[in-house]
Design goal:
By secondary structure, the chain is α/β, with parallel strands linked by helices. The chain contains six helices and nine strands. It has a seven-stranded mixed β-sheet with strand order 4-3-2-1-5-6-9, with helices on both faces. A two-stranded antiparallel sheet has the order 7-8. The longest helix has 15 residues, at 32-46. The radius of gyration is 15 Å and the shape is globular. The protein starts with 6 loop residues before the first strand and ends with a helix.
Length: 184
């Protein structure tokens, strides 16, 4: 495996709002939060760059609005990161402070991604990271998503969506890996 010392771990939107199954529906990967915690612990122990990303929704009625309990990080998000990025869109690269500028200022050319949701904010960040020239590692088993209804009215399971994300990203925008590949 590659040297991860100059790889930033970017933890995307691991927020309490996503615990509301009534709002979001069935999810996959019950091990997501445990794997996110393992990655954070490994990055802290190795003193690697750690980035937390929080979605501060500006949509009326969103459970991710600042000040609401759903905006808070889940308990697995511990300690202070090297930087906290807040965003209103899917990609962590469209947040404050500017993630790309922050990474460039530190000479960081590689990012490892984990968080919620697999096929939205984490995938969008991976695609943008790849397009910006970063070596992107996508820790699929440290993400989760929810069942979605397609335009044809058929439900696509969270597991199917995660598999499709992995297939779309791997070898194009990112290298899809597992937590054990990154946290040993």
């Amino acid at each position: 495996m590659r040297d991860l010392d100059q790889t930033a771990l970017v933890v995307v939107d691991v927020q309490r709002a996503f615990d509301d199954e009534e709002a979001w529906g069935p999810r996959n990967n019950a091990d997501c939060e445990r794997n996110v915690a393992a990655l954070i612990a490994a990055w802290r122990e190795a003193r690697r760059p750690l980035v937390y990303v929080r979605h501060d929704s500006i949509e009326p009625g969103s459970t991710l609005q600042p000040g609401g309990p759903g905006n808070d990080f889940k308990d697995v998000i511990t300690g202070k990161p090297d930087v906290l990025i807040t965003k209103h869109t899917n990609s962590a690269f469209y947040g404050e402070p500017d993630l790309h500028v922050w990474l460039q200022a530190r000479g960081i050319r590689s990012i490892a991604l984990c968080g919620i949701t697999t096929n939205h904010c984490v995938e969008t960040t991976a695609r943008m990271g790849g397009n910006l020239g970063y070596d992107v590692l996508f820790a699929l088993d440290a993400t989760h998503t929810f069942d979605r209804v397609g335009p044809d009215g058929e439900t696509v399971s969270a597991d199917e969506l995660a598999r499709a994300t992995a297939a779309s990203l791997h070898g194009e925008f990112a290298t899809v890996v597992r937590t054990k590949d990154l946290a040993g």
